[in-house]
């Protein structure tokens, strides 16, 4: 057995660090923390480190620069692994060369939701309200370059509502906090159990989800193919939020 193979046979010999490149409270936490708990019997301690900023690029860059010894993992997403490297004029890391993909943990939808003070009940009513009140609406996302950001911008293009202002946050958690409190009227978060509960409790009103079929946990929310008044679906595809 080679020295490398013997070293791998002992893995892990110390706690593993899982970098979640967003603050607590978003879809990455909803996926990463349960995964870390389930891995304890197999891998021992998995230490979670939330490292938000730049749409996930700060955390991704930290992992890209870490020693490639298997003890620093990234809970990546379509944003950190695809959108940010492509959209950046000077990418800080190469997602293909800097990371070794281990597994896909989950696929989530994005939704369009409003604070209950916004006088709309459907997506079509939201479009009409935005057109009647140019510049009055803004929406929060998990950060520039994230799938939630692109969902919001695509919605603006397809619905003809360019005056809706984008407000990028360091993650979905802070954006949700401001949306619940009414500091921002609209938000485009990933669909998680927390977001569904906020909808059920009336603290947020989900108007649509970016899936071709209804979400099993929230069957009353219309999927993208029900948005008949838009020329095309609000968002084609779903957000793969769990590469690491």
Quick synopsis:
The chain has 9 helices and 8 strands.
Structural overview:
The chain is α/β, with parallel strands linked by helices and 244 residues long. The chain folds into 2 domains: 3-98, D-Maltodextrin-Binding Protein, domain 2, CATH 3.40.190.150; 111-226, D-Maltodextrin-Binding Protein, domain 2 (3-Layer(aba) Sandwich), CATH 3.40.190.10. The protein has helices at residues 3-9, 27-43, 57-64, 78-87, 95-98, 123-132, 147-159, 172-181, 193-200, and strands at residues 16-20, 46-50, 72-74, 111-114, 138-141, 165-168, 186-187, 205-209. The strands form 2 sheets. The protein has a 5-stranded mixed sheet with strand order 6-5-7-4-8, sandwiched between helices. The radius of gyration is 19 Å and the shape is globular. The model is unreliable at 1-6, 225-229 and 231-244 (pLDDT under 50).
